[in-house]
Amino acid sequence: MRVSMDVDSEPTQPAPRPNTSMWGNIFPGNLFSSGRTTIPVVRLSGTIGAASPLRQGLTLAGCANALDRAFASSGPAVVLQINSPGGSPVQSRLIHDRIVALKQEHDKTVYAFCEDVAASGGYMIACAADEIYADGSSIVGSIGVVSAGFGFVHLIHKLGIDRRIYTSGENKMQLDPFRPEKAEEIARLKRLQATVHEDFIALVKESRGDRITNSSGNLFTGEFWSGRQALELGLIDGIIDLRAKMRSEYGDRVRLKLISTERGFFRRKAGVGVSVSGAGVGVSFAQGFADDLISALEERAIWARFGL
C-alpha cells in the first residue's frame, strides 16, 4: 500500500501563467492566494548509492539542489517523502547531515513521511526530521549494517577461467568474489560493520531521544516493523498521510509543492569517464553492462528483503 499525496510538481523551467480570469485584470498578482501556506515536498526514493543505467541511485549530489531550494522557500516547514530500503551508509549519513544543517540554518520544521519502506539508510534519513510519520503498513526500521555480494569461485573453475590479478599490499584484494572466502577477512569486515552500526545507533538515539520505548530490546538488531509497530516502539510519531497532516497543521488551504530532484544516469554529462578505442570499446561496454546488471540484481534483492 502506498501513501497517497496531493502535490503540485515544480517544472524544470517554470513558465509564467497568464491570468485569464476577469478578476486578474482588477487584482493583479497573487492577491487571492494571500494567506495560503505553501509547503515544499522533496521526494527521496530508491536505493541509496551510486546510480547506473540499470540502477536508480539516491545520492547527496542528486538531491542537494532540491533540498537547497526547498529550505530556501518562504514556507515554515519542509516535507521529506521517503521510500527507500537503504543502501550506502556514507550517502545516507551525508543526506541526513545536509538536511539537519539546512534545518538549523533556515529554522524550519521538517516532517518525514514513510511510504512503502523507510529502512536502514532510508530510516537514517528520516531521523533528520523533527517528526516522522508513516502508513500503518509501511516498513520501518532495520537499524543495522549489511554487506552483500556474490561468489563466483566455482563458476570460473567450471568454465576453466584463470583469475589473474597483481597487487602491492597483501590485503588489497580482500573479499574478492572470485577467490574462496578467508576467515580473517570476514572477521575484519565484521569489525568494520560494528563501528558503522554503533554510529547508526547513536544517531537514532540522538534523534528520537526519550520517544524510544525499547532501546534495550531488539530495536537495534536490524529487525524491521510495520508502521503501527514502529509507532509503539517510538520510531515514528504517528500514522497519518502527508496531505492530512499538513492540513491539520496549516489549514485546509495549504498547498504542497513538489521540488524535483536530479536522478539517475541521465544527469551525467556526456564525455565524462575513461576513453577507449578499437576492440577495447566492446570489452569496456560488456564489463560495464555486467557490473550494472549485478548492481540491479543487488538492488532487487534489497527491496525483496521487505517483500517489495
Description:
There is one protein chain. This protein has 308 residues and is an alpha/beta fold. The protein has a single domain, classed as 2-enoyl-CoA Hydratase, Chain A, domain 1. Helices cover 38% and strands 15% of the residues. The chain has nine helices and nine strands. It has helices at 22-26, 60-72, 89-106, 121-126, 153-158, 183-208, 227-233, 242-250, 279-304, and strands spanning 8-9, 38-45, 77-84, 109-119, 131-134, 139-141, 224-226, 238-239, 255-259. Strands 1, 2, 3, 4, 5, 6, 7, 8 and 9 form a nine-stranded mixed beta sheet that branches.
Key phrases:
nine-stranded mixed sheet; 9 strands; disordered N terminus
Q: What is the compact description of this entry?
A:
The chain has 308 residues and is α/β, with parallel strands linked by helices. 38% of the residues lie in helices and 15% in strands.
Question: What value does the Rg take, in angstroms?
Answer: 23 Å
How many beta-strand runs?
Answer: 9
Helix content: 25-40%
Instruction: Determine the N-to-C terminus distance.
Output: 10 Å
Order of helices and strands: EHEHEHEHEEHHEHEHEH
Domains counted in the coordinates: how many? Answer: 1
Sequence stretches where pLDDT stays below 50 over 5 or more residues? 1-5, 11-33, 264-287
Alpha-beta content class: alpha/beta
Question: What coarse outline follows from CA principal-axis ratios?
Answer: elongated
| Architecture (CATH level 2) name | Alpha-Beta Complex
CATH superfamily: 2-enoyl-CoA Hydratase, Chain A, domain 1
Name the beta content range: 5-15%
What is the average per-residue confidence, as pLDDT, rounded to a whole number? Answer: 77
The level 1 CATH classification is Alpha Beta
Tally the helices: what do you get?
9
